[in-house]
Amino acid sequence: MHIHITYQxxxxxxxxxxxxxxxxxxxxxKAGEMLPSIRMxxxxxxxxxxxxxxxxxxxxxxxxxxxxxxxxxxVAERRPDDLVSNKLGRLKEQLREAEKFxxxxxxxxxxxxxxxxxxxxxxxxxx
Amino acid sequence: xxxxxxxxLTVTYKNFxxxxxxxxPRGCVTGLIGRNGAGKSTLIKAIMxxxxxxxxxxxxxxxxxxxxxxxxxxxxxxxxxxxxxxLQRATTIRNxxxxxxxxxxxxxxxxxxxxxxxxxEKIGSYSLGMQRKFCLILALCQRPDILLLDEPTAxxxxxxxxxxxxxxxxFMLDEGHTVLxxxxxxxxxxxxxxxxxxxxxxxIALCEQKEVLCDSYRLVQxxxxxxxxxxxxxxxxxxxxxxxxxxxxxxxxxENVLVKVPTVEELFVHLTDGEExx
Lengths: 127, 278
Known about the structure:
The complex is a heterodimer of chains A (127) and B (278).
Chain A: H1 12-25, E1 34-35, H2 38-45, H3 49-62, E2 65-68, E3 72-75, H4 80-104, H5 109-126
Helix pairs in contact in A: 1-3, 2-3
Chain B: E1 2-12, E2 17-25, E3 29-33, H1 40-47, E4 54-59, E5 62-63, H2 68-73, E6 75-78, H3 90-100, H4 105-114, H5 128-140, E7 146-150, H6 158-171, E8 178-182, H7 186-192, E9 195-200, E10 203-209, H8 210-215, E11 218-222, H9 227-230, E12 234-239, E13 242-247, E14 258-260, H10 264-276
Parallel strand pairs in B: 3-8, 3-9, 6-7, 7-8
Antiparallel strand pairs in B: 1-2, 1-4, 4-5, 9-10, 11-13, 11-14, 12-13
Helix pairs in contact in B: 4-5, 5-6
C-alpha cells in the first residue's frame, strides 16, 4: 500500500480513502490483505490518529474494508457496482476541474464542448 | 476516558491568573494554542506540580491528591527551556535520571544514536535543536503514559522538527498514551493533533476535535463584503483585492467567492483578530 498526502485540497481522510479505494480497484491491495493499524498509519503518514481512524471507519462503512476486533483491518471482497459509481464520481470531478480551468482562462463553453467532442472522436477512431 | 481531567486549576500572580478546566482525551494528541502570556507554560507547570496551584487533577480517572507520587512518575514533561545544568555531560544527566525514574537505558542509547547526539559532550555544546531532542529523549526514557510538551518544536529547524514529531507519533503507537502539546507552530497541529485546545487570558476558551472544529468554520475570500456576509463574519481582513474572513455560515457563495475549511492557523488568527477588535 502506498499513500501520499498533500496539504492543499481535499481533507486528509478523503485523500487516504481515495487512494486506498484506488489500490483496491487496481488489485494492488488484495482481498483479505491486512492493513497497518490506525496508529501505525497515522505515524507513517504524519497525520492525526482520529484522521486515520476516520478514513478506515468510512471505508469499513462503504464495505471496502472490514475490521476484526483485536486483529486488525482487512481488505474486503471487491464489489463491482461500487467500482462503477466511484469512477463516475472521479470522472465528474475531473471534468469539473477542466470546466473551471476553461472558465478561468476565457475559453468559451461552446469551445469547451467542442474540445470534449474532439477528444471523444479521436478515441473512437483509435478503437 | 480522559488521560487528564483538569478542574479549576488555579494559579494567581500579581497581574495574571490561570483558571483552567480541561479534559485531555486519552490515546490522543491534544494541541494547546494561545497567544504569548495566555498561560500555556503556567498550565503545564501546574499540572507537573512545578507551580503551586489549587484545583483538582485526575490521571486516567485517578485523583492526584493522595496518589501524587505514583502519578508523577507516569507523567513526563519537556519544558520550554532545559531544566538542568548545561555544563553537565549527557551521560551525567542520564545517571541522575536513572536514580529518579524507572529509566529505559536501552531506549536512551538507541535514541542518542538515532539522533546523532554525542553522549559524552556537555549539553551546552549541543545546538538548540539537539537540546530539544535530548530533553524529549529524557522524557520518553522515563516510560511515561502522559507526555506534556511545552513548545517542543520552537526554534528548531524543519528537519529536527520532523524528528520531534516522529518521536511523538511513535509514543502514540500505544493507545494508552496521551500527549498535551503547546505550540505556536500550528502547522504541526494541522498534521498530527487530534484535539485543539485554545487558551486565552488564563482560561480554556475551547477544546474540540480538530477536524470537527475546523469544519465548523469556513474561510471566505471575496471581492466585496455584502451586508449579509458582514453578519457573522469574524476577523475580517481587507486587502487591495478583497476581503478574507472566518464564519460559521454555510450558505455562502457567488461570483469569485472562494470558500474553504480553515487550517488551525487561519482559525486561530481570525478568531483572535475578531476578539481583539470587539
